[in-house]
Amino acid sequence: MKYKKILPFIILFLMFLFCDSNNNIQPRMQIPGFDTKLIFQDNFDNNLLENWKKEGIGKIEITPDGKAILGLGEESKGLAFWALKEIDVDFQLEFNLRIPNHNGLFIIIICAQGINGGDVINDLPERNGEIQEYSKGDIRSYHISSHCFTEQGEQIPGSKLRKNPGHLLLSKNDVDPCTSNRTYYIDVVKTGNRIRYYVDDMLIHDFRDRGGFGPIYSEGKIGFWIGGKPEDFKVILDDIHVFKLKAQ
Predict the structure, then answer these.
(1) Distance between CA 162 and CA 73 in Å, rounded?
(2) Three-state SS for 81?
(3) Does 157 or 207 have the greater pLDDT score?
(4) Distance between CA atoms of 98 and 181, rounded to whole angstroms?
(5) Residue 32 pLDDT exceeds 70
(6) Quick one: 2 exposed, middle or buried, by C-beta within 10 A (0-12, 13-18, 19+)?
(7) 70-121, pLDDT tens digit by residue?
(8) In the chain, what are the domains?
(9) Are 92 and 242 in contact (CB under 8 A)?
(10) Cα separation, 16 vs 167, whole angstroms
(11) For residues 53 and 82, is the Cβ–Cβ distance under 8 A?
(12) Would you state the pLDDT for residue 23?
């Protein structure tokens, strides 16, 4: 009986320690003028994918050291990997990225919703991973391309920031920042109408959406998309964090 009485206090204490630990986690790259609060993380240490939704032909493999390998399957036309959490605040997305081969394309998707505001997973028809479903279909989003190669290994110059639907080009950098087989540290910062994209702390895109191509997107899901040579192209992700940004 004695232990039953103190059990609720033990649970509350452990919850306090967990929340306090989360509050102490900070992004590796600090954005001046903003306070940060961790609102989503996945280090893939538990070998579970309960925070994610896969679309398209392929598989997600979790390695013993806590990395997610996104790989294309046979006859795959693309693979999407969505975080289930809806993000409706200014945010900073950070993660580690490695792409070991040169026969595919990697895209980061942010602020993804249905064109009428619906949830991209629960309110829209099921998709098979083709890029047109994400860039010219019934999803509105911003997306950033890096490591831009065809499935034959031919390089597509530069990194591009686009707005969907319509595949509208907002910003282009002639430098593709993720072409080597090594780990890159990625940051995507969305504050109001401003989108910044960093690789290893180097600024690749800095763009303000002033509404010239339709409304400014401010909420929705975060995801990743890969396309390239079936059964060969793969991308390795780990240490994914999303921080809420609040102006000081």
Answers:
(1) 26
(2) strand
(3) 207
(4) 6
(5) yes
(6) exposed
(7) 999 999 999 999 999 999 999 999 999 999 999 999 999 999 999 999 999 9
(8) 2-247 (2.60.120.200)
(9) yes
(10) 45
(11) yes
(12) 65
Give the per-residue pLDDT at 24: 86
Q: Are 114 and 60 in contact (CB under 8 A)?
A: no
- Closest of 64, 136, 65, 72 to residue 105, by C-alpha: 72
CA distance 38 to 16: 15
Strand partners, 237: 68, 97
> Global pTM?
0.90
Give me the helices (H) in 61-192, please: 131-135
Can you give the C-alpha Rg of the chain in angstroms? 19
The C-alpha angle with vertex 79 and arms to 73 and 81, in degrees rounded to 5, equals 130
Contact indicator for 161, 189 with CB cutoff of 8 Å: no
Cα dihedral 169/220/57/40 (nearest 10) = 120
Q: Which amino acid is at 203?
A: L
Residues 173, 175, 181, 184, CA torsion sign: negative
> Band of the pLDDT at 7, cuts 50, 70, 90?
low
Alpha helices in the chain (DSSP H): 2-24, 131-135
For residue 88, give both structure tokens.
């409706």
| Per-residue tokens: 214 | 């339709």
Label residue 34 exposed, middle or buried (CB < 10 Å: 0-12, 13-18, 19+): middle
